[in-house]
Structure formats: C-alpha cells, structure tokens
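Q: Structure for this?
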Amino acid sequence: MEASAEPVARTRAASDRTRSERRLGWMLCAPAVIAMLLVTAYPITYAFVLSMQDIDLRFPGEGGFVGLDNYVTVLTSSLWWEDLFNTAFITAVTVSIEFVLGFAIALVMYRAIFARGVVRVSVLIPYGIITVVAAFSWFYAFDPESGFVNNLPLVDAEKAWFGDRWSAFTVIILAEVWKTTPFIALLLLAGLTTIDEGLYEAAKVDGANAVQRFFRITLPLMKPAIVVALLFRTLDAFRVFDTVFIMTGGGQQTESLSILGYNQLISRLNLGLGSAVSVLIFLLVLTIAFMFVRFLGASVPGREREAR
Amino acid sequence: MQRHRSSLALVAALAAVVGLGLLLAGCGGGGSDDNTLRWFIFNEPGGGPQQAARQCSQQSNGRYQIEFDFLPADADGQREQLVRRLGAEDSTIDIIGMDVIWTGEFANAGWIEEWTGQQADAVSQGVFDSVLETARYEGRLYAAPIWTNTQLLWYRSDRVDQPPETWDEMIEEGVRLEENGEGGRIQVQADRYEGLVVWANALIASAGTEILSGPEQIDLAEGPTEDALAIMGRIARSPAAAPDISTSDEDSGRLAFQDGGSAFMVNYPFVHPSAKEEAPNVFKNMDAAPYPRVEAGRQSAPPLGGINLAVSSFSDNKELAFEAIECLIQPENQIAIAEAGGLPPVLEELYDRPVIEEIYPGFVEILREAIETAVPRPSQSPAYQDLSLAIQRSLHPPADIDPEDPAPTYDRLRDYVQQAVDVEGLL
C-alpha cells in the first residue's frame, strides 16, 4: 500500500503542475491570440462576407447578397486567367533564378576567408532597399530617355524596354531577382551553418570529392532550410505588386493578380468583386503553402516534436 | 485564489489596452474645430493655391482659416485617398480640389454638395461653357472651377513652314522629316493611364462623336470612332512614333521634345516655360498651334483638364466652405495661380488682360480657343473610373490597332465601355 501510494501522489502532483503550466502557457499567449484575431481573422472573415455581396462604395445603398456571383464573374473572365499566368510565370522564373544564385552566394558567404562581415553586409544591401524605391531605380535605369542601359554597348539605343511584353517581363524579373536573392541567400546560409564540419572531414577521409560532398551531405542536410526559403519566397513572389505597378502599371500584358485586385478594390471601389479576387489570391497562396508542406515536407514549428 | 486574482488582473489589463486602442482610433477621425477649413488638394508646385488661401483667410477677418492637406501629385493617387475618406464619411475634409473627371462619381455617391441659387450663379458666371460642363452632373452644379488646362500642338518652326492642320498631315510631315534624318518624331501620351483616355477622348470628339451621350448612354458612332482609332494606330506604327510610345506620358514627351529629335508634340502649356529654362536651343524654334484635327473640315476638340472646388457633404462647416470657395476663385486669385504655376484661368474675360499675354507669350489666342472648343472626358458617368479602365484596356498599346481595319478594336472598345457603364465584370 505504502509503496504504491507514493508514485500515484507523484503522478498527480506532476499532472497538476503540467496543467498549471499549460494554463500559464495559454495565458501568456492569449494577448497574441487576441491580437491576431483582431488584426487578421476579422479582416479575412470580413473579406469573405464582402465577396458574397454586390457592394460598391460609389453606389451606397445599392446591391445586396449575391452568393457566389462575384466568384463566377472573376473565374469566367479572361483577365483573371491571363493575370494568373503572368503571376505564375513571374513566380516560377524569379524563384528558380533566385534559388540558384542564392545558393551560390550562400556558399561564398559561408566560405569567405577574408572580409566576411563586409561580404555578408554588401550582399544584403538590395534586400534592405524599399521595393518601390528599387523598382523606380530599375525603371529609370531602363528608361530609353534618361536611363543608362540603352547607352551600353550591344544594346539598341532606342529599345523601349517597357513597350513589349517579354522585355518588360525581363526587367521586372531582373529587379525582383536583384532585390530578393539576398533573402534566399540568408536563409540558406543559416542552413549551411547548421551542418557539422565533422561530416565533411569524415567524407574527405572516405575519399568523397567536392561534388559528392555537396550532393550527398550539403543538399540533404539543408533540405529543411531550402524548403523554407523556397516556400517563403514563392508566397512572396506570388503576391508581386510594387515592381509591376511602377514599371508597366500592368500594361503590355504584364499585369499580376495583385494589380487586378487593386484595380477592382482601390481604383474602382467595387468591394464585392475586389474581395472575391483577394479571397481567390488568398486561397491560391494557401494552396501553395499546403503543397509545400505536404509534398516537400517543410517543417512546421512543433511538427518534429509530434513526430518524436 | 491567488491565481484567480492574477488572471482577472490580466483580463482587465487586456481590456484596458484594447479599449485605449479603440479610443485613440476614435480620436484620429474627429472633425475640424470651429473655424478651420481643411482643403484637400495636391501640392501645386507653383504655390498659387497657397497664396489664394492666405489671401482669403485674411480677408475673412478671422471667420475662417484655410489649411491644406496635400494629396499626391498624380490624379489617380489623389482620388484614391479622397474616395477612401469620403467613403468613410470623414468630416475632416471641408473643401475638395477635384480633378474635372470626378464630378459624376462624387455627386452620385452623395459625397459633395450641390451649388444653388446666387452662389451657383456667382461661381459660374463668365466661366467657359466647356469648363462649366465638367462641374455639372445631371444638370446641376456641384463644383466651382478654379483653373483649367488644355493641350496645344507644339511644333518645330525650323523644320516645318506651317504647322500641320490634321493628324494625317502631321504623320506625313513627321515621316518625311524622319526619312531625311531631321528629327520628325511625334510625342503623344499613350501609356496605360488616364493620359491615354485624354488622347482617345480628344480624337473621338474631334472625329465628331462622343463616348457617352448621357451618364449611362453610349454614343460612339461607328464611322467617326473608327477614324479616330485608325489615327492612333497609324501614329503608333509609323516611323515617326516615339520608340517608347506605349509607355509615354506628359513628362517623357516633354523631355524627348527638349532633346531635339521630335518635331511635334501634343501637350499642356507647362512645356513652354520648361523648354525655355531647360532647352533654350529647342525653345527658340518651338511654336504653338491649335490641336490637330481628325478631318480637315471639322474643328478639333482639344482635351480639357483642371481643378474644380467642391464642398464635402461630411464637412461640419459647409456654409463657411461655400463662402471660402467663392473667395478662392476670385479673378485676382485665378491670375495669381496662372502667374505662379502657369495654370490657365477659367474666366473668359481674363484672357484680355496684358498679364495673361505675359504668361502665355504669343499663344493666348490659341489657348483661349482651345479651351472654348475643348470637349471634356465623359465625367458625367458615376462610374467614370470603370470607363477609364475600360478605355485603357481596350486601346493599349495603340500599336495593336490596325489603321487599315480598326473594326476589331472598335468592337473591343464598345464591349468594354458597355461593361463599364453596367459596372460589371473585371476591369
């Protein structure tokens, strides 16, 4: 009796403590949860509600509940599909280039022998520049009237970069790559630093060459960092707005989905249609995130503990 | 017990923080106090409006004090900020400096006050008919014009003996000059923005038809509209087109003209003092002529811009705001604004004064006639913004318009305009 009562009491004491700890945990994160509900859940829900209505700020008092009509309008419009293509195109090309470049830069930063600090800081500068400012810089650089690019050798002095779809895409993609490669490089650098140097040493001893070491050690061990970098950057790229808005305003068939939403919401004040576009973009972003987690196994905080 | 008290305290603290936040947010939107009138307008670089506001505040003997809230420099940015405030019934706005194209939208939404009786007569007397039309919606006056603007044809008098009368003549001359290596480019505004609508509307009106004949009635007679569209395509595809035509605006055109490679440009009068300062060699041979015609026998219909002043429906000081606007648009103030920033007055009689001749040396008559014959964009539409987007989408880039067969573009334009008038679909 005596012997068995002891552990029971101990377990109860432990579970009491666990419970109170859990309660403390809830209380500590309650302010954050409430703040998140106020600033994100409410607007998102409100956008859903608006997207089911025929509502336009310019015509107060008109319209009403229309169900899914706005979604039908958006999804049957050729503009939506064209802009979806443009957005997916910009996303795919920029993220691919950025990944390769970013990886190279991360390796350089990691292996930099001299002036490490200077190298890291200078690589990060573009990322520190406000997107609109960066977009304007690139816009003016490629402007046929005042830019320097057309004065470079091998470049047609009269080339109107923003006057043609593919050349406009080229500049938009260049600007995006220049701006956000440092972001990917930074995340990959963080991944690189987590790899144990001892593994390389052991591989060297076993006779693995540099290429083998990269593909057998660096890449597999960096998978979590790579997936997170690609996920963040894809979600970011998919919402591209500033660069396109500054450079072409969506002309020359370079319009992105965000600009389409902006035109309906901010410019036309057609809150119903605009919210439908926004909700659809939100769902697309959600799908992308889900696919990354599902198929590439991006690690979600807390997931590894469950697995254990 | 101890734990209970602490969690209560936490809840109370949270409630206090949230409550304070709401309270602060509430304070931000408060109305203006007693006699301050807030004028929302873009920061006109000449500073004329500020002078006028100071003058009027002084003359009111302390009954009102006009203060500025500056809006962005471009019309789309100005509208974006204004409509958001007006949509939320913001009482901070008293006086609105409105672009001429917002009248229908703002009046229909109930955001601006109608002008009636003596006050309406006072602010409309002597104003050009074309300008006054931009301040009306459904036959009623909703704003008081303070300055106007229009485009002229600027050309190089050293390259052509006579300014071309029609667009086709201009293209022919431009191509000839280009072929001789003399610089015959034509500068227009054809980026995908409001400027493209300005150009298209002027061409369509010059061809003898109009986009809308009422707030919701489409006109766009097929023959004349196609003539107008063909001209856009012909310019964009000709060797005399600026290489950056599909991204060109007022400023890129001005800069290109100042570089000397162009012989023609349609643009607002601000290009004249600018060339004088920045490109004296071009300026020597820069002359003004009437806006080109679509057909030789029909007078052209130049574009019309400018600013009208309206009283916000959510202002706490409407009476004072009406009074202040009446003062702001006085002839002396219009002249001061013209002197400071080159913006043309809206009162016809002022064009006889010598001071106006100094501001627009050598082209006062051309300017006056341009304003007289100008045709406003279809601002009577409450969904003007939709209309503008629709026109931009259907006509950009202009090089896509086949000058030999503009019918497909015409159909596209008509469909889009119909969609805009019905306020339907994505634009």
